[in-house]
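To assess whether ligand presence alters the predicted conformation, the chain was also submitted together with 1,6-di-O-phosphono-beta-D-fructofuranose. Input:
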Amino acid sequence: MTKQETLAMPVGVTLDRFIKRQQSAMPFASGELSQLLRDIALAGKIINREINRAGLVDITGAFGSQNVQGEEQQKLDVVADIRFLRALKNGGEVCAIITEESDEIIYTDNDEGKYVVAIDPLDGSSNIDVNVSIGTIFSIYRRTSPIGTRATLEDFMQGGRNQVAAGYILYGSSTILVYTTGQGVNAFTYENSLGEFFLSHKDIVSPENGAIYSVNEGNYNDFVSGARAYIVNCRMKEYSGRYIGSLVGDFHRNLLKGGIYLYPASKKYPKGKLRLLYECYPLAFLAEQAGATSTDGYQNVLDIEPNSLHQRSPFYVGAKEMVNELLLHF
Ligand SMILES: O=P(O)(O)OC[C@H]1O[C@](O)(COP(=O)(O)O)[C@@H](O)[C@@H]1O
Ligand SMILES: [Mg+2]
Ligand SMILES: [Mg+2]
């Protein structure tokens, strides 16, 4: 679909209709990816409802177990995980899934599925109980293993540039689904009363430069020197410090307004904190599609070689000129 055709698309078109039109513009599309995106949107609607009423029902607080990262799981982490796994399993297009909340690959018992999905069911877990924006992040690959066989680790080790789609859902003052299939970035706002996502931001282009930096300055002393030097530069230039503590929320603001998000390597996280397959790759793909960029300090995040399911990476993502300025310090 050309930019002109996308721009001609009236704001307010439903997600479903937009997906249909995008599909008809892709000659070889057979509809499975479209259906998979709808399945993710459906699970997002259910999680949106759970989040909105979280304080009224007993789904706040810790779940009482740890995930593979050694992090305390929140009840909503587990609820979101269950809901997305169920939607992806029931959909029929997915043969295997990895999620932040499970150590190993989850097989869907549908070896005919063409796609594998990497997902962060609930991003910004530390903000769940305090009513601050949280999100979901997803990344989709077409499998490389033969259809009809069990998916393999290699299906998930294809690298950031082989994602066929990626996106996030931001549960904030409004709920918004943002995704790309490699033809630009579009955002859909959820209309609660109609139960529908409507196109609200079409063909998002991120500003080349910005004056917002998002980093947990409390860890400043622990950060690698290049990051510390860049943060000093931001202070000198009197950029605005904005840090929600939910990657999706900080990324979304900076995508629209121009800014940079930093989660450097540190003594606590020598390889960075964020997970390559279901946090860094998908947001790096979206950034690239919107004219922004990302790095780990040495290479574009999309070019980092994957080697394990829950691999971590330093992550710097945002306006092109700000990321280039950061790289001067590495
Ligand atoms: O509390 P910190 O160390 O600043 O980390 C906050 C970052 O960690 C995260 O919460 C990690 O994601 P999860 O909540 O999915 O584990 C990001 O959303 C956020 O940007
Ligand atoms: Mg996360
Ligand atoms: Mg998470």
